[in-house]
Amino acid sequence: MQTELTRPGLLLGPDGRLAQIGWSRQPLLDCNLESARFFALRPFQPLRIKRWDYYAVFTPRTFFSATIADLGYAGNIFVYAMDLDSGGLHEEGLVVPFAKGVHLPRNSDEGDSHFENDKARLDFHVQPEVRFISVSWPSFHGGRGIKADLTLSCPPGYESMTIVIPIGKRRFYYNRKINCLPVSGTLQYGEIHEQLDPKTCIGSLDWGRGVWEYKSFWNWASSSGFLPDGRTVGLNLGCGFGDLSAAGENALILGNRIHKLGQVKFDYTSGDYMQPWKFTEDQGRLDLTFMPFKERLAQTNLGVIFSEVHQMFGRYSGRAVADDGEDIQIRDQIGFAEEHHARW
Prior knowledge:
Layout: E1 9-10, E2 22-24, E3 29-30, E4 49-58, E5 62-70, E6 74-83, E7 89-97, E8 111-116, E9 121-126, E10 130-137, H1 140-143, E11 146-153, E12 161-167, E13 171-189, E14 192-196, E15 202-211, E16 215-226, E17 232-239, E18 251-254, E19 257-260, E20 264-267, E21 277-281, E22 286-301, E23 306-321, E24 327-343
Parallel strand pairs: 1-3
Antiparallel strand pairs: 2-12, 4-5, 4-15, 5-6, 6-7, 8-9, 9-10, 10-11, 11-13, 12-13, 13-14, 13-15, 16-17, 16-24, 17-18, 18-19, 20-21, 21-22, 22-23, 23-24
């Protein structure tokens, strides 16, 4: 059973516990992190709360991603770009002690995310029907530079995959994933200048807020694309963290409507990530093969703080079944799947 939330309210009650647990098609809960109660010494709580906005954009030529994150003890700012033809990938990041200068909004449906220093400027701005991404990093890739001014269309009727789940007794995860956002604007990477067409360019948002166990693990898979008839189709799949008994984040996103899936098995070889990955759902509504063509390995090792991400880029093929029984055939749709270990 999956519990769908339909009532607006606060994320956390007066005792610091989740007021509601489940999934929703829209972000219904106010993210009142100031009510968290997971440390006896409350002044230290902000050091354990994690917040991030992660945007990903696929064009016919390039994958581009930009993130502003506050991990409590540090800010994490990173941008990466990949040439989809050659597989050339470059990533740069900044670690900012105690997240100085990082601004992230309270909720996912309004406000601004911002970071700026002498190296880079990132601005994410939310308006009622659009999201704006502005990135300027002149020294990126040895002075090649990267600059983005993008508009992601997100009308109020778009549904998103939102979950609210407990992690242990006092910790929690509030997450919103929006797939299949048509993108327009410009992306300049060195001498390459792209004018993005929303008929061929598509993006997504991973918005997360919560408190994890110190040692964590998860899998995540995501894809956004177009069917031959012009409809958008997306996938969001995940497992490995928190109590998923009331709700998981697995969904088919068809024409910007959520088709909730049950438990999905990630069948892959850890340590040999270029082998095919298989995804199947416990009710038979999903049967996909993911064929990787590029690995992004992101590692941070600061002793007590450790992170290792194997993010694989590849193509999804197979079938998914919508709520009304429609059989959706997916053919060579680009996306990614990852394995993540962290001590944070």
